[in-house]
């Protein structure tokens, strides 16, 4: 399970990779991330270690939801979840088209931020999603209060479709097509 599912080299920051989360082995590091104050929008602030492991085991067993641990130069540094919006998160709120994939990402908390790191993470996430030729559009639903992620989403091509009310938050339903993402990269 430690074999990367996707790798990307950032010219300034080095190697980024994604591998499937191992719920038992990765729970301690994930627990430290999702309960950190920086991760307030991840909605797991009050979870203990067994609850985090249970949540990632649930995701691991779900055919419509996948969690991947992001590595930076071989060390755990971020988390990505991908989901089928026709079956999870946005059912009844968003009419999913063939080729839609939903996504969440979280960078690990750090006391020594690196300029451009989070942008490199979201670029890695988007490149990994679009590496699947079946994926035509990425759908996200960030909390309306999460201004930092709104700026990152815009930087990689997301456009807000509308505000939606979800059980745990008000969110900006946003989408990014392959062409919109490539246009931000200059690869159109």
From TrEMBL:
<dbReference type="InterPro" id="IPR019432">
    <property type="entry name" value="Acyltransferase_MbtK/IucB-like"/>
</dbReference>
<dbReference type="Pfam" id="PF13523">
    <property type="entry name" value="Acetyltransf_8"/>
</dbReference>
<feature type="domain" description="Acyltransferase MbtK/IucB-like conserved">
    <location>
        <begin position="19"/>
        <end position="66"/>
    </location>
</feature>
<dbReference type="InterPro" id="IPR016181">
    <property type="entry name" value="Acyl_CoA_acyltransferase"/>
</dbReference>
<comment type="function">
    <text>Acyltransferase required for the direct transfer of medium- to long-chain fatty acyl moieties from a carrier protein (MbtL) on to the epsilon-amino group of lysine residue in the mycobactin core.</text>
</comment>
<comment type="pathway">
    <text>Siderophore biosynthesis; mycobactin biosynthesis.</text>
</comment>
<protein>
    <recommendedName>
        <fullName>Lysine N-acyltransferase MbtK</fullName>
    </recommendedName>
</protein>
